[in-house]
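BUG: 3D viewer hangs when loading the predicted structure for this chain

Environment: internal workstation, default settings.
Expected: structure renders.
Actual: progress bar stalls at 90%.

Input used:
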Amino acid sequence: MIPRYTRPEMGRIWTDENRFAKWLEVEIQACEAMAEEGLIPKEAARVIREKAGFSVERILEIEEKTKHDVIAFLENVAEYVGPESRFIHMGLTSSDILDTSFALLLQEAMVLIIEDVTALMDVLRERAHEHKHTVMIGRSHGIHAEPITFGLKLALWHAEMRRNRERLEAALKDISVGKLSGAVGTFANVSPKIEARVCERLGLRPAEISTQVVQRDRHAAYFSALAVLGGTLEKIAVEIRHLQRTEVLEAQEPFAKGQKGSSAMPHKKNPIGCENISGLARLLRTNALAAMENIALWHERDISHSSVERVIGPDSTILADFMLHRITGILRGLVVYPENMKRNLDKLQGLIFSQQVLVRLSERGMKRKDAYELVQRNAMKVWDTGRDFKTLLLEDEKLLEHLKREDIEEVFDVDYHLKHVDELFERVFGN
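Structure tokens produced before the viewer hung:
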């Protein structure tokens, strides 16, 4: 069953109708290639192309008896084609059809996901430039560190999404292979020439060498790329969740008119979209592990990978598609509170400039160890008393032996930290 939140394009890929259509196209292409090589009558290939069809309901009905989906499919196709159906699947094994068609399905899905990533990058670019100079506090270990801009945070996500897109494109190339090499990959009954011709017409490359199956390292790379993508989406979601906390409230998920946050507390605005993404990212990682487990099969093939892929193929691609659409909508409508960012920036009474005091003392010839202890002593007073850091520095006679009052005043300048913002944006987005 396709989840109700799936957009039609992605949901259609994993329907039985589309899956069997791919099987049929592989079978027809194989017949046509064999006819061109003189292995079957050209007239038979023409009839197969014209008459071949299937009924999902009939296939499932036959499978109840055969307990084999490909055989059920072939029997149903034969009902449409007639006597010429004897040439369909000639010399092939089930995995020739299953693996080649699975590549086509994964191709279709990845093309949509890459489009989703590009759309998300467009939103990140737009919002990054919107908040290029929106100053906020940078945090390390969850504690105030030094000033950044919200635009830099968005630019960082954009750069990471570009790397994700490159990984997804590599995975798309890696998965785009087919095979018609027979029961153990030796081409005993169908020549490599047939395989090459069919793969070319399907937009695939022939696997350099295979067993009964295309090797599952390719699939593991595909699902791993989706899992890494999910990790980035979760990273963005977790950051928004933190920024939406009541005590911070620097950014907030869009909250629609009529939306309810809690069945018990009418005041609530919860980051449910981002929490949803955090949860779904766990499934992508789990499915990637399952794909890795599929690499080691017995000898030239066992069937342990098949059941896994029937789940993770649609699940991971549908989830990735959904997550990308959800985070794109959240970021497009994200409510940003620059005034709260400014208030939080000042929350530590100037402590965020402590490194500049340390640097200035070192420049004036003070040993770094001594300078650190001098700055830290005053910083701890701010933590303990809530007094203003600059005021404490101006009262410290020891410190004033090394710095003039105007030196101290100059240190407390936010712009000092943001002088390379334009350069960073150029590195991420170009001119």
